[in-house]
């Protein structure tokens, strides 16, 4: 069975219409595939694009009728602020690196590399678990239930609240070195 193709030309553009003949019921229903060589042979030659007419230039606007500022000009202050914060962070990191003894620098580099590798591995495993249809929903339900039980227990029992407050305070003191935040 051959494909019947017709070409029509409307407003300078060539349109190709392809119609497929009806198949008998005993043949397969797979779509007809046309080889790339046949498509290239049947493809009409593309016409060269016509040059567009030049657009007239707009008159120059004076200072009183200047357009409102664009988002790129208004966001420059936030860009400056972000660059200042980035420079401060890098300066602080450089200072901390210089304060680190040379004997501890390889260990610090190893810890940083291990942290990055662990983050990538954790992200990949979480993505893999999220792709399992029922396991994802099951784990979310368990997490919600456990969080609800602990929140209810700590919110309703005064002794538990005091215990949580004491553990938070001791952790804060250990991290900050006893300084009040």
TrEMBL record:
Residues 1-102 are annotated as: Disordered. It holds the Pfam family CAAD. Its main location: membrane. Residues 1-17 have a biased composition (Polar residues). It is a multi-pass membrane protein. Residues 93-177 form the Cyanobacterial aminoacyl-tRNA synthetase CAAD domain. It comes from the Eukaryota. It is found in: Membrane. This is Cyanobacterial aminoacyl-tRNA synthetase CAAD domain-containing protein. It comes from Dunaliella salina (Green alga).
């Amino acid at each position: 069975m051959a494909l019947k193709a017709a070409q029509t030309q409307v407003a300078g553009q060539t349109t190709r219409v392809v119609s497929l003949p009806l198949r008998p019921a005993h043949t397969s229903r797979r779509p007809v595939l046309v080889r790339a060589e046949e498509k290239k042979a049947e493809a009409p030659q593309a016409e060269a694009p016509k040059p567009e007419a030049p657009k007239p230039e707009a008159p120059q606007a004076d200072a009183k009728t200047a357009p409102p500022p664009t988002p790129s000009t208004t966001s420059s202050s936030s860009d400056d602020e972000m660059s200042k914060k980035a420079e401060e962070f890098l300066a602080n990191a450089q200072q901390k690196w210089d304060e680190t003894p040379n004997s501890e620098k390889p260990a610090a580099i190893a810890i940083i590399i291990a942290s990055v590798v662990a983050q990538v591995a954790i992200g990949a495993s979480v993505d893999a678990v999220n792709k399992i249809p029922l396991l994802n929903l099951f784990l979310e339900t368990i997490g919600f239930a456990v969080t609800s039980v602990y929140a209810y227990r700590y919110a309703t029992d005064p002794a538990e609240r005091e215990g949580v407050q004491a553990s938070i305070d001791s952790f804060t003191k250990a991290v900050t070195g006893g300084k009040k935040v």
